[in-house]
Amino acid sequence: MAGYVGALDQGTTSTRFMIFDAQGSVLAATQEEHEQIFPSPGWVEHDPLEIWHKTVTVVENTLEAAGLTAADLHAVGITNQRETTLLWDAVTGDPVANAIVWQDTRTAQICEQLESEGGRDRFRSRTGLPIATYFSGPKARWLLDELGLRSRAEQGEILFGTVDSWLAWKLTGEHVTDTTNASRTLLMDLATRTWDGDLCEQVGVPSAMLPRIVDAVGEIAPCTGPLDGTTLAAILGDQQAALFGQVCFEPGEAKNTYGTGNFMLLNTGGAPVASEAGLVTTVAYTGSGLEPTYALEGSVAVTGSLVQWLRDNLALISNSDEVEELAATVDDNGDVYFVPAFSGLFAPHWRPDARGVITGLTRYSHKGHVARAALESTAFQSREVLDAMVSDSGVNLSELRVDGGMTANSLLMQFQADILGVDVVRPVVTETTALGAAYAAGLATGFWSSLDELRALWSEEARWQPVMGQAERDRLVGRWKQAVGRSLDWV
């Protein structure tokens, strides 16, 4: 048996390949950023070929750094930015256009049309999702209509996929997606975990172009190219992968990932739980020998990317790590609040008409207050999601497991604990999206024997406990809600 498992982590801003040993420790990792393309306000694109070339680079460089070949990997898993949508030619394999990123809002009119025929929640009972620009089905329809490719798609000559499908196609030649990514399309029946022909017709996406749905945890196909010699044995959307990597295998266990956006997931067990508080119901994971497991999710569009915006658009900092030091130059936010509704507001509001606002500015305010307000916005948005989660599930969390790049920011993590009123816990391995994909691939191929064995590998590195009083917490949350109100009805 080979002694390592690989994970290909294709995210919104970068692609990373990581190699883990049997203890779940990182042997080697390489990461490459890719271009963010903004053709028009509200539009966000990626170049699929750049993503593929970066994938080849990080795989080759990581294997070289580890002194391994792909044949030394017992298996490999893919985890990916989820709703980002692309189409490609079934014969040539060439993408027909740039990928439309999950943050992109160009499908607003399509979504409005779908809502007009039955309301925002017309598909929720089957999909667990509201109609929103976030999800990939309307993005595929926009590309078909804009490029005049519908007839070819109906013949199966044009293929649809999220980024996992694109990478699986390039690595194995198989046109597949998994249950977690398929559950984000508005096209899959959540209970049966199969494509729904009626949904496809209503959204406007031909069934002939859809990938085959496979379990998230399970052997899919042998790999070729840079991973020739190993097997693709897992695919999970990035947030489900993080839930898996945080070993939240029991109902009531939750995690929050701090990346480009924030994504909180709560394991709800073997049946979908409908949300009445603005969350989405999604597949957590499926696999041979595993009970199909569902989750409630709250998705926040802009958190880590707000720090990048401070760096790239305002030049308040020269690199992202400097934001904590700048925010720490002030004792509090000076009554400044930053609502980063650059792509509207996602959960629990689902308001595409919202736009970003900074409120409470006075002559006293300076860049330290803006930096602090930007960080605090991440914590406030997570508080809104947790409140919705408690409302839907009736589960009061005793702690929240956190991961992702922003968890290195101690100022943010302490404020997060304070504003939630619960302990915030960071594991030793914070890049749990990649870890979850590795765990799933290793579990599928016998590298690890059970969920219990994976649970035993998880270990805590840091814990932040709330020190803020309830009155101050309530005051700050109340001011945040005022600021959110200022961001609405802009478009």
Which second-level CATH architecture of one domain applies? 2-Layer Sandwich
Taken as a percent bin, the fraction of beta residues is 15-25%
Which class best fits the helix and strand makeup?
alpha+beta
The CATH class of one domain is: Alpha Beta
Number of helices: 16
Radius of gyration: 21 Å
Describe the largest sheet.
7 strands, mixed
CATH fold group of one domain:
Nucleotidyltransferase, domain 5
Overall 3D form: globular
The name of the CATH superfamily of one domain reads ATPase, nucleotide binding domain
Our measurement of the CA-to-CA distance between the termini, rounded to an integer number of angstroms, reads 57 Å
Unreliable spans: none
Helix content: 25-40%
Mean pLDDT: 93
Task: Please count the beta strands (DSSP E, at least 2 residues each).
Answer: 23
- Arrangement of strands in the largest sheet: 17-18-16-15-21-22-23
Structure description:
Strand 13 and strand 14 (231-237) form a beta hairpin. This protein has 491 residues and is of the alpha+beta class. The protein has helices spanning 48-66, 108-116, 124-127, 136-147, 150-154, 163-172, 179-182, 197-203, 238-245, 304-312, 322-327, 367-393, 410-420, 432-444, 451-457, 470-487; strands spanning 4-10, 14-20, 26-33, 45-46, 73-80, 85-89, 99-100, 158-162, 176-178, 188-189, 194-195, 212-214, 217-222, 231-237, 254-258, 262-269, 280-287, 290-300, 337-339, 357-359, 399-403, 423-427, 460-464. Helix 9 (238-245) crosses helix 14 (432-444), helix 10 runs antiparallel to helix 12 (367-393) and helix 12 (367-393) packs across helix 13. It has a domain at 4-238: Nucleotidyltransferase, domain 5 (2-Layer Sandwich). The strands form 7 sheets. It has a 7-stranded mixed β-sheet, sandwiched between helices. The protein starts with a strand and ends with a helix.
